[in-house]
Structures are given as C-alpha cells and as structure tokens.
Write a structure and sequence with these properties.
With 126 residues, the protein is mainly alpha-helical. The N terminus is likely disordered. 59% of the residues lie in helices and 11% in strands.
C-alpha cells in the first residue's frame, strides 16, 4: 500500500505558493488587519485590532490564523495578551503598491465616468 502524505509548500510549484499567498490576502477583513499592523510601530495586541476593526473575536481569530498559516504575520504571547506584527516589511510595501494600483485604476474609471457624463443626452423612444 502506498503511503499517503500531506503536500508541503516546498513540494508545490512557486506559482502555486504565490497564488496561495494571494488567496490569504483575498479578504477585506484580512487586508484591514494588515493595514492596521503596517501602520503600527510596534507589535499590536489582539485587543487593539478588535477595537479598530469591530469584528467579533472568533472571526478575527480565524482571519489571523489564515495570515499566520501563510506566514504573512507572526504572533507572540506576552502574559495573557497576544501581539501580532507583519512577518516581513515587504508586506507593507505590497499593501502600498496595491493601494497605488487601486487609486490609479479608480482615477481612470473616474475619467471615463466624467467623459460619459459629458456626452450629449440620448433621446428615448417616442
């Protein structure tokens, strides 16, 4: 009988690992958490993340677990508190680049919307 084993990230092609990273980032709540962590100068306690996001503790815990599993954040327990930080400073750079991309995309869409509004009115059927 062939022994079955769990696939590890190192067994996967790099494009699949990268896709899984983007899947980990593909939720608005996780992006919000990462923005909070990137704005912080120090590791951030879960209580502060809860206060800033307004999420329920169990939901936040699930999102943090996804980010941790994909090595986007790290956690450290100090007494009863758990503190999170970005696992790598380039995560903040990735967020910044994505925000710039979004702003540029919205700017282009806004220009198209302005052009649409400037068109002469269309007369409907009579």
């Amino acid at each position: 009988m062939k022994e079955s084993r769990m696939p590890f990230e190192s067994d996967k092609p790099l494009y699949e690992i990268k896709a899984n990273l983007f899947k980990a980032l593909a939720h608005p709540a996780r992006i919000r958490v990462l923005e909070i962590l990137s704005a912080a100068a120090e590791p951030t306690p879960v209580s502060e993340i809860l206060a800033e996001t307004g999420m329920e503790a169990t939901l936040l815990s699930q999102h943090l677990a996804v980010l941790k599993r994909h090595q986007v954040v790290t956690a450290e327990r100090v007494g009863n508190a758990v503190f999170y930080r970005l696992a790598h400073p380039k995560v903040a750079a990735l967020l910044s680049i994505s925000r710039t991309f979004l702003a540029d995309s919205l700017s282009t869409a806004g220009k198209h919307l302005e052009a649409l509004r400037a068109l002469p009115p269309i007369k409907g059927p009579r």
